[in-house]
Design goal:
- 57% of the residues lie in helices and 7% in strands.
- By secondary structure, it is α/β, with parallel strands linked by helices.
- It has three domains: 129 residues, 2-Layer Sandwich (Nucleotidyltransferase, domain 5), CATH 3.30.420; 142 residues; 120 residues, no CATH class.
- It has a five-stranded mixed beta sheet with strand order 3-2-1-4-5.
- Helix 11 packs antiparallel against helix 13, helix 12 crosses helix 15 and helix 14 runs antiparallel to helix 15.
- The longest helix is centred in the middle third of the chain and has 38 residues.
- The protein starts with 10 loop residues before the first helix and ends with a helix.
Length: 472
């Protein structure tokens, strides 16, 4: 509760009221709403008032970018019924809603969007069934907009939109590379099991991958056919191939181990060996191309980050420019959020309490919002737990307190205590990932650079100038 607040309203109440006032400005009580259910070739439209009475409806079989005539018809129907204010509502279905956003901007019509999850839940609440048609959904979308269960869609500029698409492309390439690595490992477990033991992390070793490429492209059905080359000639072939994997030199120890394994047939399924080795060669080619594309995409993301003037985010210890760009590709411009808490909620990392009366259950993260943002922040925070001094201290403090509690309850079984400790460490990592998002929000919105004292919440820094310009 805020100081001096006689009404008992909290800061959250005031922010919620302000947000609803902004929405009410777009959806006045004496206005009409055009609900649109978007599809590929069929668009269902309904015009409703604030009592959810259908004033007009129409189904058109056109692409979304040709909806202009239907929008003009719907707006004309609303004004013919005496409604001066008309608002358009739709779900953000794929990229089609951006065409609606463009058409509304050209006609001066305000646009609000309904989260698909909200409409899904409302559909079941409406008649306790999963009944779904385009004609009923457009009315449902309009009703949710009337009830202010909607949001104002973001208008991306060209640079931020480019960064978002690069981030999605990077995520696809990472998934493709991971899938190729898993398939290679699975094929080799049948065709040549011993070769995976020649390196600690074989699929991360450029020398190992180059050697495997040499073997699979030349051996036919039997790696032992290359044993006649000799270790030195084999190593020379690997050195010539390692540059294609982005390496500068080949490790002789790994080459020698793989050469020694050429004639080892332990665990080999002979009947499938020829086909699987050819599939490994194909997967290696795919993995090589995917990694090269990934390097180019990440270089483009760093260039866009510099174009946005946010290269200073790489000043956060243990956070790379690529990691910062990947997070911003998911969040969009942090300035569009009301607070850092809103950004954390968007990632689904905010605590979801479970309490009623005297009952207090375990709090978990909400897992709502944007899963891609949650995954990107989760990946970025791992190296920071070790190499970022502020984050490492935060994580250590949280896990140390948990460790002390576990030590006091020594009567519990060891397995239960270990499981509880793992859960506490996981919660600490989530809290650290949320802190990373808060740091990025603060640095972008206030235009500051990395400051360990501010990030650690030093009381002496709470009233410090927010940017160098204020200090001057």
């Amino acid at each position: 509760m805020g100081k001096g607040s006689a009404s008992g309203m909290t800061r959250g109440d005031r922010k919620r009221n302000a947000r609803r006032e902004r929405l009410r400005g777009l959806l006045p009580r004496d206005g009409a709403v055009i609900g649109i259910d978007l599809a590929e070739d069929k668009q269902a439209i309904a015009v409703i008032d604030h009592d959810v009475r259908v004033l007009a409806r129409k189904t058109v079989r056109v692409k979304a970018f040709r909806l202009g005539e239907a929008l003009d018809w719907a707006a004309g129907q609303a004004r013919a019924k005496g409604f001066a204010d008309v608002t358009v509502a739709c779900e953000p279905t794929g990229p089609r809603w951006m065409q609606v956003q463009r058409l509304c901007a050209e006609r001066g019509l305000p646009l609000v969007c309904i989260q698909p999850l909200v409409s899904h839940i409302a559909r079941e609440q409406q008649d306790y069934t999963t009944h779904k048609t385009d004609e009923s959904d457009c009315v449902l979308i309009g009703r949710l907009a009337v009830e202010l269960h909607c949001y104002i869609p973001e208008e991306l500029d060209e640079t931020w939109a480019h960064l978002r698409h690069l981030g999605r492309r990077r995520a696809q390439l990472i998934t493709a590379a991971t899938a190729s690595m898993q398939r290679i490992q699975g094929f080799l477990s049948v065709a040549w099991p011993v070769v995976t033991g020649t390196c600690v992390q074989p699929l991360l070793s450029k020398t190992w991958l180059a050697a495997l490429q040499v073997v699979t492209s030349r051996c036919g059905a039997d790696p032992g056919n290359l044993a006649a080359l000799g270790c030195e000639a084999f190593t020379a072939l690997v050195r010539s191939a390692v540059a294609e994997w982005g390496g500068k030199k080949a490790w002789g120890t790994i080459c020698a181990r793989i050469f020694a394994a050429l004639t080892d047939t332990e665990g080999v399924v002979v009947s499938s060996r020829r086909g699987l080795l050819r599939r490994v060669a194909d997967e290696l080619g795919d993995l090589q191309r995917t990694r090269a594309q990934l390097r180019r995409v990440e270089a483009d993301m760093v260039a866009v980050l510099d174009e946005l003037g946010l290269s200073r985010l790489a000043g956060i210890p243990a956070l790379t420019a690529v990691g910062a760009a990947a997070i911003l590709a998911e969040t969009g411009d942090p300035r569009r959020y009301d607070s850092s808490s809103s950004l954390v909620k968007h990632a689904g990392m905010s605590p979801s309490d479970n309490a009623s009366g005297t009952f207090i259950g375990d709090a978990r993260i909400s897992r709502r919002g944007r899963p891609g943002l949650r995954l990107t922040a989760w990946r970025a925070v791992w190296p920071m737990l070790q190499f970022n001094p502020v984050m490492a201290a935060k994580y250590q403090a949280m896990t140390q307190a948990a460790g002390g509690t576990a030590a006091e309850t020594s009567s519990r079984q060891a397995s239960a205590a270990a499981a509880a400790a793992r859960a506490r460490r996981a919660r600490a990592r989530v809290a650290c990932a949320a802190s990373l998002l808060r740091w990025i929000y603060s640095m972008v919105v206030h235009g500051t650079s990395w400051d360990a004292a501010v990030a650690a919440g030093d009381a002496a820094c709470q009233h410090a100038p927010r940017c160098p310009a204020e200090a001057a």
